[in-house]
Amino acid sequence: MLALTDQELLRYDRQISLLGFDIDKQQMLKNSAVLIIGLGGLGCTASLYLSRAGIGKLTLVDFDTVSESNLNRQILYTHQDIKQLKVDVAKQTLIKMNSDIEIDTINQKLDDVSLTSLIKQHNLVIDCTDNLSSREQINRCCFQVKKPLVSGAAIRMEGILTTFTYQANEPCYHCLSRLFGQDQLTCIEAGVMAPLVGMFGSMQALEAIKVLTDYGQPLVGRVLMIDAKSMQFNHVSLSKQPDCQVCGNSNKI
User: pTM to 2 decimals?
Assistant: First the structure.
């Protein structure tokens, strides 16, 4: 296990000073690898806070380029980055903020076999994608190898956040998504308020830290729903669905 340097002990002093979060937990972060899929508004913020918090390794997956319409909410990019690959720009920006972090990038859409192989190399996955098919694929692959998944979504002025660890009798993402049906809008169709994705991306980073260091109580079996227009916060319990196509009792994976 890699030990913290004197510089890192100073940099992360405010975290280490937290009650119940000590040098050992900070060292756990340094020795953890997180896979972030999607480098839009959620992924930019989640990767930024994880790198600042002292994660040891990030792998960034996205196959898009920076466009003008990204700039109001995707905080790793500037006007000079337009038409460049998001993964390349994000890596450069994050390294400037924390040169101790190791960052890998993948600029392509992965099939189930490649994605599952990649997930096995990490301690946790953060889903920052913006479409149902990608979220379902990530959930299937995480369930297959039982790697924790932090899932977040933000649209208009609303968002949801939950965490899956795939233990016995715990739900998976499909247990949740089946409740909403197939016709889910995207930000392109419905719009999104810029600070909202920052809000949920930072909470995804926080959930990841909690799971990786066994600190606090992650949102396992619970869904946090926020209406930012009225600032109403609601928790809903999420149970494993016996007939779920992914994690249900009849599943043979």
Answer: 0.94
